Amino acid sequence: MVKPEERFERRKRRTRYAIRQRAGGRPRLSVFRSNKHIYCQIIDDAQGRTVVAASSLDPALRGELAKGSDKEAARRVGLLIAERAKAAGIERVVFDRGGYRYHGRVRALAEGAREGGLSF
Predict the structure, then answer these.
(1) Dmax over Cα atoms in the chain, in whole Å?
(2) 20 to 30 Å CA-CA from 27: which of 56, 81, 87, 96?
(3) Distance of CA 47 to the CA centre of its chain
(4) How many domains, the chain?
(5) According to the 3-state scheme, what is the secondary structure of 12-54?
(6) What residue numbers bound the domain in which 36 lies?
(7) Which pLDDT score, from 0 to 100, does residue 110 have?
(8) Distance (Å, rounded) from C-alpha 26 to C-alpha 108?
């Protein structure tokens, strides 16, 4: 019997492989979601480094959010990552949802990033 963690890792690997095939040199917007917070970062896979990052723990958002685990917090993190990406000169990315469904907080983060000006 396959453990849930192993199934998640398989989904994540499968998603990441498909993204790398279609990326075309664009950086990757990767999402991690925990029970209490949501995190995202834009990664340049060619150089193997994180360009910009944002989370619901960020000091810019920490005082304004009621809690870091709802859709509103995810949308605000998406807006913040888009703002930081534009400052770094990034406008087009590939969305990496990891092993998560495109649903709920992950979708809210993506829509916030699009609202902020990132295109994917």
Answers:
(1) 47
(2) 56
(3) 19
(4) 1
(5) HHHHHHHHHHHCCCCCEEEEEECCCCEEEEEEECCCCEEEEEE
(6) 4-116
(7) 97
(8) 22
pLDDT bucket at 101, cuts 50 / 70 / 90 = very high
Strands (E), 34-114: 38-44, 49-55, 94-96
Rounded CA separation 35/33 (Å): 7
Q: For residue 92, what is the DSSP state?
A: B
Asked whether the beta carbons of 15 and 97 are under 8 A apart, the reply is yes
The pTM for the full model equals: 0.90
pLDDT tens readout for residues 14-72: 999 999 888 888 999 999 999 999 999 999 988 999 999 999 999 989 889 989 899 99
